[in-house]
Amino acid sequence: MLNIRPATPADVPQILAFIRDLAAYEREPDAVHATEADLLRDGFGPTPRFYCLIAELKQACHYVPAGFALYFYNYSTWRGHHGIHIEDLFVRPEHRGKGIGKLLLTHIAAIAVEQGCHRLQWDVLEWNAPAIGFYEQLGAKMMTEWRIMRVRHEAIPALAAQSKQP
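User: That's the sequence. What structure does it adopt?
Assistant: Structure tokens below.
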């Protein structure tokens, strides 16, 4: 039996463990700098910056964490509507092939419908052929003409410093 539920503050250690597992899967095991305090502040404070679903699989008499999906709202100026961006979708390797990823994704799609969102999007690494095939089977289309641009870490203050008028 599978259960999908919203994460609670008590889930923060598990969420961070999932994030670390995902980073290892994506070949970036040392890239995670988030802390439990960061997740607690940003996901469960007065103004949540993200939302999270936990997938639990019943084994014997209890549920075990099997996967998670972390998402946030964005806005499309072209559509004039908000949407959802899925930041992370991860199922532990030992629980893959049981429909957990699909259930997490369809759960977020139902939230998008309920909230009147006009877009549901996420990123996928180009080498992750199993995930790409899975997403395409569900009706997702790859946007090959778009590229992600990112300014990170110390480059942000350097860019901001350029805003000062001469």
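The helical segments are 12-25, 36-44, 100-114, 129-137, 155-161.
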